[in-house]
Description:
2 copies of one chain form a homodimer.
Chain A: E1 2-7, E2 14-19, H1 26-30, E3 37-43, H2 47-56, E4 62-68, H3 77-89, E5 97-102, H4 104-116, E6 123-127, H5 130-136, E7 141-146, E8 149-156, E9 161-165, H6 174-191, H7 193-207, H8 211-231, H9 246-256, H10 263-280, H11 286-298, H12 311-318, E10 333-336, E11 339-341, H13 348-357
Parallel strand pairs in A: 2-9, 3-4, 3-5, 5-6, 6-9
Antiparallel strand pairs in A: 1-2, 7-8, 10-11
Amino acid sequence: MMKTIEVQLGDRSYPIYMGSDCLHQADLLTRHIKSRQVIIVTNETVAPLYLEKVQTHLQQYELEVVILPDGEKYKTLTIMDKIFDALMTRKFSRNATLIALGGGVIGDISGFAAACYQRGIPFIQVPTTLLAQVDSSVGGKTGVNHAKGKNMIGAFYQPQAVIIDVEVLDTLDDRQLSAGIAEVIKYGLIRDIGFFNWIEANIEKIIARDKGSLIYIIEKSCHNKAEIVAADERESGIRAILNLGHTFGHAIETGVGYGKYLHGEAVAIGTCQAADLSMRLGWLKNTDVARIIALFKKAGLPTEPPENLKAQDFIDLMAVDKKNIDGNIRLILLNEIGKATLPLDVDRAPLLGTLNEYGRSK
Amino acid sequence: MMKTIEVQLGDRSYPIYMGSDCLHQADLLTRHIKSRQVIIVTNETVAPLYLEKVQTHLQQYELEVVILPDGEKYKTLTIMDKIFDALMTRKFSRNATLIALGGGVIGDISGFAAACYQRGIPFIQVPTTLLAQVDSSVGGKTGVNHAKGKNMIGAFYQPQAVIIDVEVLDTLDDRQLSAGIAEVIKYGLIRDIGFFNWIEANIEKIIARDKGSLIYIIEKSCHNKAEIVAADERESGIRAILNLGHTFGHAIETGVGYGKYLHGEAVAIGTCQAADLSMRLGWLKNTDVARIIALFKKAGLPTEPPENLKAQDFIDLMAVDKKNIDGNIRLILLNEIGKATLPLDVDRAPLLGTLNEYGRSK
């Protein structure tokens, strides 16, 4: 059983294939390869599990493989140069196709490499974590981290296709699964209360990796993401709501050092902070905030900021986040569960209230 | 006296201003700046000459300046990181404007930095060499070199405006002026025989820096470039003719080490090689090739490949050039003076004839 969602972006439109044996269907991959040269970029964790399966479909191509170390701390310009080196050494042309086989880090770094090599070669996303499947592989945001800020160097660059095989989640560890659920909950919070309610009612089945539930949350998430991206590809407006919890979350990731928290974990904490701030601004009720925190906890996610990151650290780190216009901190908040808002300005007092008080005394 | 040519690219259209006191007109710059944050990127050679003049217009802005070392060998990802560092340290947002003040290297590297910082910030080209004014500042090709190939990492990213002040050529050394003329002659060769004839008749005045002649060649060159870019922004077809001499030229630059030849010098040699090969294929007459070589020589440019770069070196180096499709070497050649052609395939024998014999025995 396979479903397809189309991301509608004119001549940059592409399909998201999702199902339970997509990796066995050679044709899903090869129909999007335009020349004989193919490079697979993956990491040390994913390669032993799925590289051979993908390679099997590509025996008639000139194939190059780059295996990167695993982890957010390797999402740098320096590591990206390894991909360029491999492409240059094989003398691959601008028609070569890059396949990103891995989680969000692999998708981001190799998508950005594809955007830059010879000013752009085609690439295909084959996400192997829940987080990459429901969020980062769709929508064309690619990039690497800078020592002073996450995802600060990158490109909007759409893939030719996204191939999601839910079976690969069998080998995902619990912590990675939970990190993905953080982004799934996000879609419910920002625009889909029905989906939020469904997740709340089915969180035990999701955590238990019930296949039908996983397929359902992937499909709902990709559907939401595809709609938002189609409406605002380059984030000049509405797409920003996808960053709920991310301004706080990026500050946490940068502040404690890349790799200590998984991205989804930092987003979970950041979303709780955003919910707390939304309550201080009079939008969310206490009971809403409690529901949100309870759901993240049931999903196995952290909900409180690290003790050693003080309010001023957050302020400093958030000031360089991409969501900021001309130095003002721009936060995505919630008017209610299922309805995100982009306040033009947030008063310093309630923001400091959240940073100093939320999750600090327990 | 100021002229404006519009590069027609839909919502990415922009003006090229050219004249003899453009740098004194603050408004040409400030009308294209959208926020209070401005970063100027320049180099050690240009900064003492023109940085203050540009800064004068920007006193009401939050201004950051990055001064890079001068030269093609610094056009790398590593040097580009200095620009990111400055932007991050100042916490500049995605509405900050980058001004590239310098020659082709500064324009390429800082245009690429603008393309990547926060996935794209606006930038303005203020080219200070003839080569940058007539070619590299217009059309949105940005990028850096890779150890194994020139301009292999980059982006198509259009500026908000190009501001060309012909007065800055007063401080340009003769070698740099000649390098720029190589690209001027190129426009005549690929599509404008009338312009070629004019350059031939006026080369002494151009070399003597007659202001009227310089303005004329800049205007004609930008006009030709703007038309080609408007027809084919991302080089899927006709834009490739702008690479006349460049496949040979890039091989020379990479083969002898970045910085030994100026880009325009390598292009001059490469264009002579392309002319020689066009003759071997029965297209150009001997007298055409002699005219072309004579004009480059009068312009103060080298016309023969370096002795230590053998035919096989050229073959190896050209195989990784961006103009190649799936490993085949793609050359831009001439059917006649004023008419470029993109042969789908070039026989190895005449190519080896050019590489082994042209400029080798004198």
